[in-house]
Amino acid sequence: MKRYGFIFARGGSKGVPGKNIRPLAGLPLIGHAIKAGRDSGMLDRIIVSTDDPKIAEVAEELGAEVPFLRPAELARDDTPEWLAWRHAVDMVDQFDLFVSLPCTAPLRIGQDVRNCIELFERGGCDMVVTARPAERHPSFNMVTLAEDGYAAIAMPPGATITRRQDAPPVFDLTTVCYVTTPDFIRRRESVFQGRVKAVIVPPERALDIDTEQDFAFAQFMMERNK
């Protein structure tokens, strides 16, 4: 079985400009994704999809492959990630397993990637995602606001559930890892159009970098982990 890891890193990040090659704990952010893929011991290739020649240069220096540059129309703020996935799988030779390792989850470890691949290969699903236990429950801690300004519980619990502890557990999706097949990407349009299973990742490895504050916290966590 050919298992290919993919890292999608466009050059136009606005929340944290230049984040994909910005140093984090002495290594460009993209390097942490490359390292986790390599440490999993499960990937035959690690391929970077980017529109930015500088990102491509850094990725290759860190040991990843950049066999193509992503077209500009697939690297806009509003471009669905799925289209970048589909472009990438069509740009390489035939393979069996697609593993996406977003740059934005630098605290993942190789074992997280391995767990996702092994769960997928046990069968019974079209996609494996990662999640972490949610800190807040939509049946007790989240509200919607109507046009008239009144608040209502986002997901009302059943009449028999009166305590948060009794409600079914909920999880936050993370960007640690996604596993599927090239065929599923070509036939579908989004993650949840198929049967999805999840690997639960501890909160300390599930940080998703979207802001400068997230980046600073990741730096703190990595320095502490040393």
Automatic annotation (TrEMBL):
It comes from the Bacteria. GO terms for molecular function: N-acylneuraminate cytidylyltransferase activity. Keywords: Nucleotidyltransferase, Transferase. InterPro entries: CMP-NeuNAc_synthase (IPR050793), Cytidylyl_trans (IPR003329), Nucleotide-diphossugar_trans (IPR029044). It holds the Pfam family CTP_transf_3. The keyword Coiled coil does not apply. CDD domains: CMP-NeuAc_Synthase. This is Acylneuraminate cytidylyltransferase. It comes from Pseudodesulfovibrio indicus.
